[in-house]
Specification:
Largest sheet: 7 strands, mixed
Structural class: mainly beta
Helix content: under 10%
Shape: globular
Order of helices and strands: EEEEEEEEEEE
Number of helices: 0
Low-confidence stretches: none
Strand content: over 45%
């Protein structure tokens, strides 16, 4: 059974940094795209960033230049380094992974940016 376990959320002041990590398990196959989505209260879930096995990346315009996505050598862990955080980055962040066309989601981790 595929599981995605996230860590690294929390409370940070504007301008601060956080690093999110997501470890995927339960598959003999390598995950294709892995990434992060977020959902703020009253808003739809949106893509933050993702990365394919081939290391192609895709970022939301609102986070370009501030967030960096990476995957480890096994391709089963995805990280999101978030710098210069803003109050509007406050949301629940969800790890996402695609395995043979099937999407999987983590349980979500709260990121709050406030002074």
């Amino acid at each position: 059974q595929v599981q995605l376990v996230e860590s690294g959320g929390g409370l940070v002041q504007p301008g601060g940094s956080l690093r999110l990590s997501c470890a995927a398990s339960g598959s003999r196959f390598s995950f294709n795209a892995m990434g992060w989505y977020r959902q703020a209260p009253g808003k739809q879930r949106e893509l933050v960033a993702d990365m394919t096995r081939g290391a192609s990346t895709n970022y939301a315009d609102s986070v370009k230049g501030r967030f960096t996505i990476s995957r480890d050598g096994t391709q089963n862990t995805v990280n999101l380094q978030m710098n210069s955080l803003r109050p509007e980055d406050t949301a629940v962040y969800y790890c996402h992974a695609d395995l043979l066309g099937q999407p999987y989601w983590g349980q979500g981790t709260q990121v709050t940016v406030a002074s």
